Amino acid sequence: MRNPKIGVVSLGCPKNTTDTEVMLGLLNQSGFQVTFDNDEADICLVNTCSFIADARQESVKTLVELASEGKEIIIAGCLAQHFKAELLEELPEARAVVGTGDIHKIVEVVKAISEDSSLRVVEVSDVPNDHQEDALPRMQTGFGASAYLKIAEGCDHRCTFCIIPMLRGDFRSRTIESLVKEAKILVASGVREIILISQDSTYYGLDLYGKMSLAELLEALHEIEDLEWIRIMYFYPGEATDRLLETIARLPKVVKYVDIPLQHSHPEILKAMARPALPARVVTRIRELVPNVAIRSTFIVGFPGETEEHFEHLVNFIEEQRFDRLGVFTYSLQTEVPSGQMAGQLPEKVKKQRRKRIMELQHQISSQRNQNLIGTELDVLVEGFDESKKLYFGRSQWDAPQIDNQVYVKPDERYSIVIGDLLNVRVFDAKPYDLIAEVVLTATEQPAIVASCAVS
Questions:
Q1: Do 355 and 398 sit in the same domain of this protein?
Q2: Is the pLDDT of residue 450 over 80?
Q3: DSSP helix/strand/coil, 391
Q4: What percent of the chain has pLDDT over 70?
Q5: What's the CA gap between 43 and 96, in Å, rounded?
Q6: What is the mean pLDDT of the segment spanning 192-209?
Q7: Which domain holds residue 409?
Q8: 92-130 CB burial, b ≥16 within 10 A, e <16
Q9: Which of 31, 74, 331, 343 has its CA at a distance of 20 to 30 angstroms from the CA of residue 20?
């Protein structure tokens, strides 16, 4: 097998998505054929997730299914970093494992196993502290007008429930220059929205510049012509400084959206998690400094030792704060991190009941918030056409892809709507997590949208 066709499965978070796109870009640049139809593939590259138990189960299920189909597999990412020996032992079909800090070696790995059918390759650094400054080639796996830009890798925080430092190493930033270069390449390909991602984006630059420098990065990206939106994921509560928030408020291209995982509200649980205290103060400050902001947060229920009193505190906090967007996770036991050894581990049934109650509360909050938008106008980035609904769909600046609201837009015979259009629409109907809108016409507009941008 001298030139195998490479299939791909990418699991897990947006950071994994960018790693997958880089590996595919490197393979494509080196002349390997890449296919998104795994039935056609000779070897399947699976970029795995090992963040929580459910993610590990999904990764293992995917690997077993591909193996049962007779596919040879390259296992990359967090599961490879976590369980390299076990994977090679349990899956004879696994030809290679590639850790989170070794994805840039993917071409050498594929060449090696292509030339020797008996070879099994392990490229998993014990400490994943790679540092890539170049804007590596990428093959985008999504569609539409948005792309992720990974600004840093790893994490220096040591939350007691989180395995990320073990899987991805300590925090390390990329330079502003390399990020601007990659962003310009993405925009030149038709991207209209750049989404900044890392485990803790607000920490950006401290290792390189001696101070947190996300504001400076935003200023530099804001100068890129034809870039419409810049979105930041994720904020760490103790690092949402006034200077950063004021920069977000001031720069038109930076969307007024703050994704800040608070994880809990009760001081005792936050202390046990090794998370910052006083979350209400942080939320209040964001709303004061960023007008018209949408705040998304995530919380963990069922953390070891969480009592009914702790949980009720969290319910009341969410009801008071009325977050625009909200995610809730049940605590996932992992013995490798401190919380896995804590007393007071709760039954899964209790965790699920608590999650259900908060999601029901948030359903009510989201419904009311969306109802309040009926009759208002907003800009929507068009991402596709839903054949079953016969409506275009996209997102407002207050919605991140795949996790937040969608806005459905009625076709208008006077306009040729194209993926990548940034449309001004008026909301005329609302569901708990979706809005229905129509294009707003003005006296000066022509039958074609001047600012449309086709994205292949």
A1: no
A2: no
A3: strand
A4: 94
A5: 10
A6: 95
A7: 377-439
A8: ebbbbbbbbbbbbbbbebbbbbbeeeeeebebbeeebeb
A9: 331
Say yes or no: 187 and 232 in one domain.
Answer: yes
Close Cβ partners of 346 (under 8 Å, ≥ 6 residues apart)? 302, 303, 304, 306, 331
E strand or H helix that includes residue 16? helix 14-29
pLDDT-derived band at 452 (thresholds 50, 70, 90) equals: very low
Residue 250 C-alpha from the chain's centroid: 24
| 51 contacts 83 by C-beta, under 8 angstroms | no
**CA separation for the pair 217, 175 (Å, rounded):** 9
Query: Does 454 have pLDDT greater than 60?
Result: no
Tokens of 361: 């509360």
Per-residue pLDDT tens digits for 235-256: 999 999 999 999 999 999 999 9
- Per-residue confidence at 143, pLDDT binned at 50, 70, 90? low
Q: Residue 317's domain is classified under what CATH number? A: 3.80.30.20
The burial class, CB within 10 Å (0-12 / 13-18 / 19+), for 361 is middle
Q: Is residue 416 part of a domain?
A: yes
Where residue 33 sits, what CATH number does that domain have?
Answer: 3.40.50.12160
Last residue within a domain, chosen from 371, 390, 415: 371
Distances (CA, A) of 240 to 228, 235, 287: 23, 7, 12
Q: What is the number of domains present in the chain? A: 3
